[in-house]
Amino acid sequence: MVFNEKSSAINRLYEQAPQLATQGEKVISNDELTGVQALERKHPGLPLRPGKVERREFEYIRHGTLCFIVNFEVATGQIGQVSCGPTRTEQDFLNHIEATVATDPTVSRWHFVVDNLNIHQSESLVRFVAAESDVDETELGVKGKSGILKSMKSRAEFLSNSDHRIVFYYTPKHASWMNQIEIWFSILARKLLKRGNFSSVDDLMTKVLAFIDYYNLSMAKPFKWTYKGKALQA
């Protein structure tokens, strides 16, 4: 029942995204891509030949890793706010959500589809949503002891409240594939990361952001979401 309820809510949200956009609301599919390696090939690759792709040197140099926190705008298919850094902490995610909301003060309601990672249900996130939604801070209680902040479950219930200006929708357990940003991450991996050559983490970040600009200009379109919340049948 929990799976059906959560999946149905997300499916409805995806379906309603274009209409919500006309009403000043935004539907955002959000997730983190962690541990993205800046790998530089030790030797140049061999050029293309008839019937053969470019051949690559198997030895590489590691230059570190980056984490990307990315918004996929469901109604338009474009990539919105992107945050890059070495970590994926509670503060990193809060900063990303704050930056997202700050990009467009005219949006009447933000809808975020996320997975069940603990930083998506944090105390600091609850306090930010409460402030944005004019919720009295005295109602929040004390983390681990009482009120809305008592547990991850109580925090998630608060963050899922559709009356708030910022609403979070959590994918069912083991169903992060319901988050549309995962489709875009696979595009990024195939188009750029898989055969990329990066001389530093700064080079990695520059090339990823450049790809996003290119994607938004020439490739972006809403995904045709065909899942209907029903069990697959033979």
Number of helices: 6
Beta-strand percentage?
A: 15-25%
- Please trace the helix and strand order, writing H or E for each element: HEEEHEHHEHH
Morphology call: globular
Give the helix/strand class.
alpha/beta
What oligomeric arrangement do these chains adopt?
single chain
Strand ordering within the main sheet: 3-2-1-4-5
Instruction: Evaluate the radius of gyration.
Output: 20 Å
Helix content: 25-40%
**Termini gap:** 22 Å
Mean of the pLDDT scores? 93
Quick recap of the structure?
With about 230 residues, this protein is of the alpha/beta class. It is about 35% helix and about 20% strand.
Would you kindly provide a written description of the structure presented here, covering whatever features stand out?
The protein is of the alpha/beta class and 234 residues long. It contains 6 helices and 5 strands; from the N terminus they run αβββαβααβαα. The protein has a 5-stranded mixed sheet. The longest helix is centred in the first third of the chain and has 21 residues, at 2-22. The mean pLDDT is 93.
Write the layout of secondary structure elements.
Blueprint lengths: L1 H21 L2 E17 L18 E14 L4 E8 L4 H13 L6 E6 L8 H10 L19 H8 L6 E5 L10 H13 L7 H18 L16
Main traits of this protein?
single chain, 234 residues, alpha/beta, five-stranded mixed sheet, 6 helices, 5 strands, 35% helix, globular
